[in-house]
């Protein structure tokens, strides 16, 4: 049995060895990296010239190995999706890193710090026309951690972890956890997927609103919560309609339409008589109530339905 000490155990920098494999593993552990993920920073934006992309000043960590791309040019295929890879071959001691444009993401996860082989990691997806670059999409920089503990957490993309505990707030597009969420406040533009959620404060989910007025005078106010739940409020006065008639005027916008026909119950203000309307999957609204003449009658009501 052996315990080997490296780098930071050295008081004077000479007592313990500094090894590239050991430092590579250290950097990966500190950042939650895997062999298929990268850390990448463009200090200057890449340049696109015809069917070429030039990395003017870009830093990359792949497989725990840090390198810089300084005016490095990669030739691209026209009318294609080009997957730009960093290839690390430690047997090529003079030039261990090369770049290649390939037709698919061929990241291979080779463990170069404990074994041998060539590590391939994709870091850009470049789409071209016949004459030049039309778009560049960097590969997401991912971390895999058992748990996260922080005061505040704000992400433009998604969170994926086993457990998440914060003293402050969470702000992200999507949140997926195998374990539990514990935070003071939670604000998301997308979805939550977790086993348990514990909050001391509030949950803030995205809200969309729509108000339409039918040709028969009734008004419907739609409030959509988190792309799942739609709450409907009925108001306004209705006239000139009969049971089973589709109400004229605008139909419900596509974003608020139900997956199956929904019936919303309402009543006439100041009366005991009730009615209901059907909201169809195509957005049409059908009146199911007593025949109404030209004299408007005030309506009230509310209901809700899921759209997924």
How would you summarize this macromolecular structure in one to three sentences?
The protein is mainly β and 308 residues long.
Judged by helices, strands and strand pairing, the structural class is: mainly beta
Number of strands: 27
What's the pLDDT, averaged over the residues?
Answer: 85
Evaluate the radius of gyration: 30 Å
Largest sheet features: 8 strands, antiparallel
Helix content: under 10%
How would you characterize the overall build of this protein?
With 308 residues, the chain is mainly beta. It has three domains: 132 residues, Phage fibre proteins (Triple-stranded beta-helix), CATH 2.60.520; 58 residues, no CATH class; 100 residues, Immunoglobulin-like (Sandwich), CATH 2.60.40.1830. It is 4% helix and 51% strand. The chain contains one helix and 27 strands. The strands form six sheets. An eight-stranded antiparallel β-sheet has the order 20-21-22-27-24-25-26-23, with no helix packed on it. It starts with 19 loop residues before the first helix and ends with a strand.
Give the SSE map.
Layout: H1 20-31, E1 38-44, E2 47-49, E3 52-62, E4 65-75, E5 81-89, E6 97-102, E7 118-128, E8 133-138, E9 147-150, E10 153-154, E11 158-161, E12 163-166, E13 169-172, E14 174-177, E15 180-183, E16 185-188, E17 192-193, E18 196-199, E19 203-204, E20 207-213, E21 218-225, E22 229-238, E23 245-246, E24 262-268, E25 274-279, E26 285-288, E27 297-306
Parallel strand pairs: 9-12, 10-13, 11-14, 12-15, 13-16, 14-17, 15-18, 16-19
Antiparallel strand pairs: 1-3, 2-3, 3-4, 5-6, 5-7, 7-8, 20-21, 21-22, 22-27, 23-26, 24-25, 24-27, 25-26
């Amino acid at each position: 049995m052996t315990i080997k000490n490296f780098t930071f155990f050295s008081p004077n920098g000479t007592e313990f060895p500094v090894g590239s494999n050991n430092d590579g593993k250290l950097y990966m552990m500190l950042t939650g990296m895997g062999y298929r993920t990268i850390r990448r920073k463009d200090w200057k934006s890449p340049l696109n010239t015809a069917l070429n992309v030039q990395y003017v000043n870009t830093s990359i960590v792949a497989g725990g190995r840090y390198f810089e791309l300084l005016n490095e040019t990669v030739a691209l295929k026209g009318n294609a999706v080009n997957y730009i890879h960093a290839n690390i071959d430690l047997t090529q001691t003079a030039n261990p890193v090369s770049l290649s444009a390939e037709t698919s993401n061929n990241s291979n996860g080779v463990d170069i710090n404990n074994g041998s082989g060539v590590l391939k990691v994709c870091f850009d997806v470049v789409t071209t026309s016949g004459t030049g670059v039309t778009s560049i999409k960097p590969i997401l920089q991912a971390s895999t951690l058992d748990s996260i503990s922080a005061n505040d957490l704000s992400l433009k993309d998604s969170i994926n972890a086993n457990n998440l505990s914060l003293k402050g707030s969470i702000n992200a597009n999507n949140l997926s956890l195998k374990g539990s969420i514990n935070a003071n406040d939670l604000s998301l533009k997308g979805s939550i997927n977790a086993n348990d959620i514990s909050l001391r404060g509030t949950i803030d989910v995205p809200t969309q609103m729509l108000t339409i007025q039918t040709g028969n005078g009734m008004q419907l106010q739609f409030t959509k919560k988190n792309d799942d739940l739609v709450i409907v409020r009925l108001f306004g006065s209705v006239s000139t309609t009969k049971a089973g008639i589709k109400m004229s005027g605008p139909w419900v916008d596509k974003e608020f339409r139900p997956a199956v026909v929904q019936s919303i119950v309402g009543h006439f203000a100041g009366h005991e008589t009730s009615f209901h309307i059907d909201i169809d999957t195509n957005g049409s609204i059908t009146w199911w109530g007593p025949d109404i003449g030209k004299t408007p009658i005030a309506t009230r009501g509310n209901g809700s339905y899921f759209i997924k």
